[in-house]
Amino acid sequence: MASEEAVIATNDDAAQCKRYAVEKGYWVDPYISLMISKGTAHHAPEINRGYYARITSIRILLEKFIRLTNRKCQVVNLGAGYDTTFWKLKDAHLTPEKFVEIDFAPVTSRKCHHIKSKRPLLDKITNEDEDIMLSQSDLHSANYHIVGANLVDLAELDKKLQQSGIDRSIPTVFISECVLVYIEANKSAKLIKWISDNFPTAFFINYEQVNMGDRFGQVMIDNLKTRDCYLYGVSACDSLQSQMQRFTSNGWRDADALEMNKVYNCLPQSEIKRIEKLELMDERELMEQLFSHYCLVWAYKDVNNIGLEEIDLSQS
Asked: What is the pLDDT of residues 266-288, one digit of tens each?
């Protein structure tokens, strides 16, 4: 697995990028500024549009899952970092029965500190009838949980999910944003299979690199190496087919995948027109090249046939 410190640094970078894009007006998130301090770096328009497409497409799939289950479901965010999805779902009255975030203990410790020290974050997770249990790296409330764990340690993961009160019998969606790529492919396959073996009704949303065998992909890999950050799981990112196969060969009924160029074109076009007015872009080809090296993958297994195969990016 990639060095813990280097992977944690990528979380900080991603959070800074999201805050920057929010401040530029790409989407509304009143909580990201409470999680991460304002950075000094300027981010190019193609980066901001990429984060917009990433955040928006994941939100569409997640909200469709929650609505399909009438909120009688669970969300497990793998490598959640400083993600603010729980608070935004709360504002939208789409809170699931359980929302669990998992990351390295140094990340969850800092997030717990942010939450307990900032009322807008803390107030959203408090319940008059229940106390919040807080340790250095874990937080447990009525329906929101943060736990520190290493995703390759399945025994530890199992223990932490049990401590969070996860019910394996109800529909559960797992979210992963550029997380599995830092784990050796055989170990991420074991994680994917473990989830499939333990959750009969499950949905998995994975945002990650793709088409990494060309020159652009190699430059991306080399740039991360200079930061002591190695993409040990990049073999699964060879193509859309390999991205889907990692699920279908490990117990999932079916999977779909789209390059981010196609995802971008699936998003509400009124919103696309709005965000494209926020910043001028000199070379659209650079954005399209970048987008061709990221993808959105979703997989499902649906023992009770509740309709998970119907979830996609369509606007119906």
From this structure: 999 999 999 999 999 988 999 99
Using pLDDT thresholds of 50, 70 and 90, give the confidence band for residue 316. low
Q: In the chain, count H helices and then E strands.
A: 13, 9
In a domain, 109, yes or no: yes
Flag whether 177 is marked binding.
Answer: yes
User: Is pLDDT above 60 for 1?
Assistant: no
Distance separating alpha carbons of residues 33 and 26, to the nearest angstrom: 14
The residues with which 259 forms a beta bridge, in sequence order, are: 295
CB crowding 146-164: b at 16 or more within 10 Å, else e: bbbbebeebeebeebbeeb
What range does the domain containing 164 cover? 4-302
Total number of domains constituting the chain: 1
Q: How many residues does the chain have?
A: 316
In a domain, 310, yes or no: no
Domain-embedded: residue 73: yes
* Annotated binding residue 25: no
Helix axes 45-68, 284-291, angle to 10 degrees: 40
d(CA 266, CA 299) in angstroms, rounded, equals 18
Separation CA 205–CA 11 (nearest Å): 18
> What's this model's pTM, rounded to 2 decimal places?
0.97
Rounded Cα gap, residues 303 and 252, in angstroms:
10
Residue 79 annotated as part of some ligand binding site: yes
Domain of 192: which CATH number? 3.40.50.150
Q: Is 156 helix (H, G, I), strand (E, B) or coil?
A: helix
Measured distance CA(210)–CA(216) in Å, rounded: 11
